[in-house]
Request: fold
Amino acid sequence: MLEPLQEPFVQRALAELVLVGIAGGALGCWVVFYGFSYAAESLSHSLFPGLVLASIAGLPLLFGATPAIVLAAVAIALAARIAGVSRDAAVAVVVTTMFGLGALLALAPASPPGIEALLFGDVFGVSDADLAIAAVLVVLIAVALRLLHGRLLIAGFDRGTARSLGVSPPLVDAALLLLLGAGIVVAVQGLGNLLVVAVFVGPAAAARRLSDRMLPMMLLAAGLAVLAGLAGLYLSYYAGTAGGASVALAIVAIYLLSLPLGQLRARRRPAPLPSGATIG
Amino acid sequence: MSAAALIEAKGFASGYDGAVAISGVEFSLGEGQTLALLGPNGGGKTTLLRALLGELPTLAGTLSVTARCGTVPQTERSRLDYPVSALDVATMGTLPSLPWWRRPGRRERDAAAAALDRVGLRALAEQTFGRLSGGQRQRVLIARALVQDAGVLLLDEPFSGLDRPSGEGLEALIGELAGEGRGIVIATHDLEQARACDLVLCINKLQVACGEPDQVLDDLGVLEATYGGAIVELPGGGGRAILPPHHHHH
Reply:
């Protein structure tokens, strides 16, 4: 069991997947409750040209991903301000433009081969520099989530009254999207452009069925995501399957497992009090 | 009339993006007074509540609110699948009093627990919010407003969807909170509920009337101006009722 862990490239892959799991699981809980799954998908696709440029320049992918994601966010915000353009139309136009641009660059004759790694991830190809940047980003995400916890909780609970509690829902949305962008930058190296959304949705959706308090749910989602990363890593190592796809498969398996477990748990709970019941 | 006015509006108008949505609002709410806010959907009840919270600009006249307002929204507007306990929700009310970097600590949770106790829910503090009954959820949201040390409570349709015992219990609680000197504003569709208040304010974009329940509610002209043709005379001298409103959220 421990044999693959002797290899440095497997050790680096494991470290990357632990970082991805922490960021994906914890952020994913908010993504699920804020209805940001489509935003996560869109952000990840729109950083594709950045990944291609970084790979052409031989830089860590994160250096390309960050400006691309910022550019996409600004473009979406600007496009949505044009009269007659709805927000989801703005997202769709910007995302397809960015993804198309990325494909154009990747398929240019001058570009080096290896587009699959960018689309589907190359968890065994993670460099020490990638890991260091990812670790810094994960620490920043964790600190930000702790500072913003109360505000995220309030705005997600009831947007209408958030302001009366001193919380601005648009600001909270923007902060969460920013963190999501950082999380995607961490995860894209391992899971690739097309599969990265899995880690922000699957573990959180599974944890939601197994927990009814926010903090335990976030910890559980992070744990499940790390577990899925480990399972995917072994699957990939022994079965020779693609790393990112193996992890995504493990995430789906964990979600499917959570369905009967969640039902079992619901059956064990006492029935809620009837509405007229007197309370001591 | 009570001594100190918590809310004083004179010829007040407000709205969104500079466009007037409500105007001619004129009333005064003293300590311990309850005010029923009547009006059709889209008539400006929610707009007035938001203006009282300071979320909307004054477009004409004056509005002075001397006490902190705590808002008690309809419970269906909050997420019932949210992973929070009753205590978590009540604790949300402590956030405005904390510096931005601090999380609610023991003192804040104690204050929230005391507020839950005040509304009769101490035993259910650890229950998941979405698994409480409608009346219990309404009480949790009142506790959240009490934690904010609110001198005025703004309740939006607090009785909608409640069965009779829950409604009566809530009514008694609101009476007690007014008895402590709090001002209470209740947006409602229920004329009987309005009759139990000290003051009734009818609004349909323009303020139609404001006064004691007997003066306002027995004046068919006022009710017609407020609701248009939606009032029906109940058979057998059962009084008047408003045709069931469409429920749509803005």
Notes: The CA atoms of residues 191 and 244 of chain A lie 4 Å apart. DSSP finds twelve helices and no strands in chain A. The mean pLDDT of chain A is 88.
